[in-house]
Design brief:
CATH architecture of the largest domain: 3-Layer(aba) Sandwich
Helix content: 40-55%
Order of helices and strands: EHEEEHEHEHEHEHEHEHEHEHEHHH
CATH topology of the largest domain: Rossmann fold
Number of strands: 13
Strand order of the largest sheet: 3-2-1-4-5-6-7
CATH superfamily of the largest domain: Glycogen Phosphorylase B
Number of helices: 13
C-alpha cells in the first residue's frame, strides 16, 4: 500500500521536515511504500526526498500533506489530487506578530491562513501536532482529527548523545532557548528576565539563543535591547547549528526558558525533557498540551524579577529540580516512537476501512 508525504520544502534542521523524515522511517518499517515529495529541496536532506514532479497520483494512495506556512503553489496541486488525503497541520503563526518587523512574513502568514480554509474542503482527515492544532482544524470544519505529535528521532539523538560531552565552564549558569529568532517567540521577554537574573542574582550566567537568526528588524530590536540592558557579554546568538553542537548546548544547559506566545508543538520542549533540563515556560498556545503535567507554567510573564528568582530556585534546589525533571521524563514517554507509531498506524487502518466501506 502507498502512503506518501508531500511537503512544499524539505529543509535542514526544520522541525516539520524532520517530522516527515521520521514518519517515512516508520511507514517503511511497517511495510508501506512510502516516499516524501517536495517542491524545494535542501541539498543536505536530498537523500530523503523526491522532486514533486515525480509524484504519481493514485486514488488508492494515502497522501499526507504537511502544512505549516503557505504552500508555495503546492497546495493547489494537492487539492486537485485524486488520492486519499490527510492534512498534517503544524500551525501558522498569526500575522500580527510579524507586521511591526517583517511585512513579507506577515503577508505570507495571512496567505497561509486563507489557503488553509480552502484546503480543509479537500481533505478526508487531519493530523494535528497538538490538541491546539486539532482545535484549529475543527473550527474550520475538519472534524475528523487526531493528535499526532511531531516525531523525534530519539535513536539518532541517543547515538550522538553518547559521543558528546558538555562544555561546562566552572560555576557558569547556562540558560537556553532553542528556536528561530522570531517575534512570536518573544526573545525580548527572555532578555528582560535574564537581566534581573544576571545582575541581581548571578553575574556568572549566560543566555543562549540557539536557532536560525535572520538579519531583520526583530533581530536588531533584540540587539538594541541587549545593548540597553548592558548584556552584550552575557548573551549569545548561535544561529542555525549542526545537531552535534545543538546536543552540546542541551547537555550544558541548566534551564530551558520559553516565553513564546505562539507555538504549534514546540519540539525544543520535548528535547529538553530528553536531556533532563528543567523547563520554565509561558502558558500559551500549545505549550500546556506539549508539557502535559510537567515543567513549570508561567501565567503572568510580566513579573520578570519573580521569574528570575524562580529560575534561581530551580537551579539551586536539587530536590525541586529532580521533581521537575522526573515529571518531564514521565511526559517524554508519550512522545516515544512506539506510541506515535501506534497512533499513525491505527489512523491509517481506520481511514482505509472508511474509504473501502
Amino acid at each position: 500500500m502507498n502512503v506518501h508525504q508531500i511537503i512544499s520544502a524539505l529543509s535542514f534542521g526544520d522541525a516539520v521536515s524532520n517530522d516527515a523524515i521520521a514518519l517515512r522511517k516508520i511507514l517503511r518499517k511497517n511495510g508501506f511504500n512510502s516516499n516524501i515529495y517536495a517542491k524545494y529541496i535542501d541539498p543536505r536532506v536530498s537523500d530523503f526526498v523526491e522532486p514533486i514532479e515525480k509524484y504519481q497520483p493514485d486514488p488508492t494512495t494515502i497522501m499526507i500533506y504537511h502544512f505549516a506556512f503557505g504552500g508555495a503553489g503546492v497546495s493547489e496541486y494537492v487539492m486537485d489530487l485524486p488520492d486519499i488525503k490527510i492534512l498534517k497541520y503544524h500551525n501558522i503563526t498569526p500575522p500580527h506578530f510579524f507586521y511591526p518587523y517583517n511585512k513579507n512574513i506577515a503577508l505570507g502568514c495571512e496567505t497561509g491562513l486563507k489557503e488553509l480554509k480552502e484546503l480543509i474542503r479537500h481533505f478526508h482527515f487531519g493530523f494535528g501536532d497538538s490538541k491546539f492544532n486539532c482545535t484549529d482544524l475543527n473550527k474550520l470544519g475538519l472534524t475528523k482529527t487526531v493528535v499526532l505529535p511531531v516525531l523525534l528521532d530519539f535513536e539518532n539523538i541517543n547515538q550522538m548523545n553518547n559521543k558528546i560531552s558538555p562544555l561546562k565552564e566552572q560555576n557558569m549558569v547556562n540558560i537556553i532557548f532553542v528556536g528561530r529568532i522570531s517575534p512570536n517567540k518573544k526573545q525580548d521577554d527572555l532578555l528582560k528576565i535574564f537581566y534581573f537574573y544576571h545582575f541581581f542574582i548571578n553575574k556568572n550566567s549566560r543566555l543562549s539563543f540557539i536557532g536560525k537568526c535572520d538579519d531583520d528588524l526583530y533581530y536588531h530590536h533584540l540587539r538594541n535591547l541587549i545593548k540597553k540592558l548592558d548584556l552584550e557579554q552575557a548573551v549569545v546568538f548561535t544561529g542555525l547549528i549542526e545537531n552535534d553542537h545543538l546536543i552540546r548546548h542541551y547537555k550544558t544547559a541548566d534551564v530551558f526558558l520559553c516565553m513564546s506566545e505562539h507555538e504549534g508543538f514546540c519540539v525544543p520542549l520535548v528535547e529538553s525533557m530528553y536531556f533532563g533540563i528543567p523547563i520554565i515556560a509561558f502558558n500559551s498556545s500549545c505549550i500546556p498540551d506539549t508539557l502535559g503535567n510537567s515543567g513549570i507554567l508561567i501565567n503572568d510573564k510580566s513579573k520578570y524579577e519573580e521569574i528570575a528568582e524562580l529560575m534561581d530556585l530551580v537551579i539551586n534546589d536539587q530536590t525541586l529540580k529532580e521533581k521537575i525533571v522526573k515529571r518531564q521524563r514521565e511526559r517524554l514517554k508519550d512522545f516515544e516512537e512506539r506510541n506515535i507509531e501506534t497512533i499513525l498506524l491505527r489512523s491509517i487502518k481506520e481511514i482505509s476501512k472508511e474509504i473501502e466501506g
